[in-house]
Amino acid sequence: MCIKGVEQSLQDILKAKDERVAFQRELLEKYSNPIISYKLNIPGPVKYNPLIKNIFNEGLLEITKVLEKQKIETSYQKITYQYSGPECFISFKYSPLEVKNLCTLIEEIHPLGRLFDFDILDEKGSQISREDKDMNPRKCLVCDKNAFECGRSRNHELKELLTKIENMATDYFKNK
Known about the structure:
This is citrate lyase holo-[acyl-carrier protein] synthase. Keywords: Lyase, Nucleotidyltransferase, Transferase. InterPro entries: CitX. It catalyses: apo-[citrate lyase ACP] + 2'-(5''-triphospho-alpha-D-ribosyl)-3'-dephospho-CoA = holo-[citrate lyase ACP] + diphosphate. Its EC number is 2.7.7.61. By secondary structure, the chain is of the alpha+beta class. The protein has a single domain, classed as 2-Layer Sandwich (Alpha-Beta Plaits). The protein has five helices and five strands, in the order H-E-H-E-E-H-E-E-H-H. The chain has a five-stranded antiparallel β-sheet, with helices on both faces. The longest helix has 22 residues. It is globular, with a radius of gyration of 16 Å. The model has no long low-confidence stretch (mean pLDDT 92).
């Protein structure tokens, strides 16, 4: 069940975010290349368990296939599995705008894509947003409205969101 796992406090989640940003800065300084920073959109205090790991690995497989198919050279990759959530960092040598397009396509088309969160940072560390590319904002898992607005206004109970995630993943892996 998606809800079970080691709960993370807000402090744990914020600490992981600070560490992610610091590591992104290190990669930018070391390689001077754009970065894919991949994690999942999982609401609530549990950010890691076997189901979440499987979802993450599915997104990792997709981005790896896309990079290989497009012959995008990578200079560094790091994958971590931790209670604050799995993460992957990829430094690459290619247009960050084009990679944003490719990652957004994965998020839009893959059955679990709504759970994938591919952030693209250009070589200066600026995040390339959907708005920068004149793309629609992400949709809510439950009602297809703007995800940010739904989340901010707490339109759905956590249990409803987690049940939706669990059902999406269970259906996907059962049919794979």
